[in-house]
Amino acid sequence: MERKIYIAACTASFALLSATIGKEDSTPPIAPRFAGGDVRTPAPAAEEEMAREVVALAAEAQAALKKKTAAARSWILLDSSGEGTILDVDKYAIMHRVQIHARDLRILDPLLSYPSTILGRERAIVLNLEHIKAIITADEVLLRDPAEENVVPIVEELQRRLPLASVVNNAHGEGRENVTGQHDVEAVEEDESPFEFRALEVALEAICSYLDARTSELETAAYPALDELTSKISSRNLDRVRKLKSAMTRLTARVQKVRDELEQLLDDDDDMADLYLSRKLAGASSPVSGSSMPNWLPASPTIGSRISRASRASAATIHGNENDVEELEMLLEAYFMQIDGTLNKLTTLREYIDDTEDYINIQLDNHRNQLIQVLEQTTTVFPSESTYLLLSLSADLFPL
């Protein structure tokens, strides 16, 4: 609707301005004669004021359209059955739905540069890993910009893997009554992870595989280029290696950020315990924690973290698993080892580039020494032809 108003306003303003310019260039019309014989000409200021009003209306419509487009972001909501729903809502609707703060949601803004982050809040996990910007709760996943090229495979993987829990749980219920359902019961025991951990695993697997694939592509291009440079030093090969080295530096920084975030999370048991959303939800529904845990949005992330720890302590009193983060720790360690292996590949590539640079510098020093010796000899024997000979040798030693 705003777009139609904007187009109509622009068309009207353009027509009115064209008519005004045409009137200024054409012969002035005959002025009307009023009673009493007075001849009055219409003031051009009125037409200019009308034109300004139309232009202002068009600008307001355009600003409203931009504001609406910027405020509403595309999200996809995936529930425990894998069903996806597209949500075109503003940030306040998302904050109210998952009960997080604006500062946490700002981390997921693609227009802002934030490092890789995994935050545990009272009722959600805020996940910012490269192009994966998601909010995970105990029973649903909110993924930003689902139509993006790198996000589409993650959505498909979530839709494929999240419903398995429901199917397996049904099989578990039937297996108790049916003796032949022993295989299904074993499958249940292998997949008892909470919903938030299954969603987190999909995200970690996707980002680790993505960065490892980019590293493999870089290795495929870099090693032949370095070998070619060692065999033939030229401006073309040097420029090619320079670009590959810049790409390697950027990719190393991205991998390092993900690795550091996983390492920091593994070093803090409290942060890992904050990611147990299902456990906290079960503790909040119990009589002990239900009377002491208020059901409102915390005033700040710091207070929210304290309330989270208090809720976890209450749940631990009932279930006796306050420090039980072994399941999540094993999950994070697996992907930490994978991302650390990717970083080791990049480190090896950097060392190979450094060795190649050292080799090239040795070759250049050798060529320079040869040039100096030739120049000294030619200056002594042929003073007039030394410059020409030096240029010829330089062209042979350093072809373009």
From TrEMBL:
Magnesium transporter that may mediate the influx of magnesium. It is found in: Membrane. It comes from Musa troglodytarum. InterPro entries: MRS2-like. One of its GO terms (cellular component) is membrane. The keyword Ion transport applies. It is a multi-pass membrane protein. Belongs to the CorA metal ion transporter (MIT) (TC 1.A.35.5) family. The keyword Zinc-finger does not apply. Residues 241-268 form a coiled coil. This is Magnesium transporter. GO terms for molecular function: magnesium ion transmembrane transporter activity. Keywords: Coiled coil, Ion transport, Magnesium, Membrane, Transmembrane, Transmembrane helix, Transport.
